[in-house]
Amino acid sequence: MQGVVAAGDRHTARAAAEVMRAGGNAVDAAVAGAFAAFVAEPLLASAGGAGMLTVAMPDGPAAVVDFFSPVPGRGPRPEKLDFEEVRINFGSAVQSFHIGHGSVAPPLALPGLVLASKRFGHLPLEALVAPAAAMARDGVELGREGALVFELLWPIQERSPEALALAGGARPVQGSTIRNPELAVLLEELAREGASPTWFDEAILRDFGPGAGGQLSREDLESAEPQITAPIELALGDWTALTSPRPGGASVARILSELFGSGAGADEAAEVVRVAEACRSARDTRAVLSARGSTTHVSAIDKDGGAASITLTNGEGCGYVARGTGVQLNNFLGEEDLNPGGFHLHDAGGALPTMIAPTIALRDGRPALVLGSGGSNRIRSIVSQVLARVVRGESLEAAVLAPRVHAEQDDAWVELSGRTDPDAIVRALQERFERVHPFPGPAFFFGGVHTAAVSPGGARQGVGDARRGGAVEYV
């Protein structure tokens, strides 16, 4: 085996592996997987969304390509902001989001992927776009998890005829075929021009500018640019964790410091409480949420040992499409998780907070583990727990499959399957948290940590998290 890719859908993983087989490196594979996710995981990733890539290649320093959206509002204000609440029933909870033309922040997914390709990739952009464009024209079969996401977010998708059309006109189910020929045209022109086509920006301004009840202006789009920054580095014995310098990565680093700064609990329940307390220690000022988190992830390691970790998000989607493009825009301005003090209070041009934390762990200075996850504010907890387990010697599969816990100020959420004494764990958590939310088995709520790894002997391994449709391809 020369390379490995893990992703949130089998079609995404196959597209990334196809590019790696054609001579692409880990970044090429991750970027191709991102384009494919726009088609195969359309409610989790979008050309109308954003993301972040952490990269560690043999021939240069590690870096983070940050293409998360900034706050709009540099231009004129709409007379009436199109911004409305929608309530989504997740079964265990009902969550409120805000959608509409006024919930959209400048999308940076396409510029970010182009920058990553040009700066760190080997293959031309046309080769990276080709698998996704073919999928968009020919169609892809929706998996079980993809159908679940459509079911959960259907009140948003039926908000407009264009968004409904992207789903095929009716709520898709497992096995339904999803096509998006307009997106294929957009991606192919992006590859030819090496930048977002002018007509894509014009469509965004037409449909999400002040005249349509949105906040996007030409100034907002022109000033929004992806950035290349240095990752946070955290030493863990022979390992070094490299992660996002944004709040998500800083929170991962804080949790890992707590986990490695104290000894293991005396028994199973005490250990779960210890991990929960570490997660709580890294909480920020945002409200406690029970949202599922419309986010996905791709991890890749190539034959030369290069590593790429990319996380993508579109929020829940705003319910509206930039007409003629096949792209539903994000609703980042309508997510409480990104607007903890209230909506529309961020300064124009400022950074939106994000829990995205694509992470690479080095062992003896070389990439050994690539991971990341969807899962909204749970990302910091689940990435930290999987990484800590691997560093402490657990197998990759065991670390990914292990039951998880997440905690905020007064709440703890915990998976109970695989525990020796679930009742004792719940009781122990109840002594420390006002509310405990037990899950009987592995849950979509706890994200999808799709991982790629290199053993000390050089063998590649990948694990796709079944909580979110994970798939692995070897090259």
Please characterize this protein's 3D structure.
By secondary structure, this protein is of the alpha+beta class. The chain has one domain: Glutamine Phosphoribosylpyrophosphate, subunit 1, domain 1 (4-Layer Sandwich), CATH 3.60.20.40. 33% of the residues lie in helices and 21% in strands. The protein has 14 helices and 22 strands. It has helices at 10-21, 26-40, 109-120, 125-138, 144-157, 161-166, 181-193, 198-208, 218-223, 247-260, 268-281, 379-391, 396-401, 422-430, and strands at 4-7, 50-56, 63-67, 84-89, 94-99, 140-141, 177-178, 227-229, 232-236, 239-243, 295-301, 307-313, 321-322, 327-328, 359-363, 366-371, 405-407, 411-415, 435-439, 451-454, 460-463, 471-474. The strands form 6 sheets. The chain has a 7-stranded antiparallel beta sheet, covered by helices on one side. A 6-stranded antiparallel beta sheet has the order 9-10-15-16-20-21. Helix 2 (26-40) runs antiparallel to helix 3 and helix 10 packs antiparallel against helix 11. The radius of gyration is 21 Å and the shape is globular. The model is unreliable at 284-292 (pLDDT under 50).
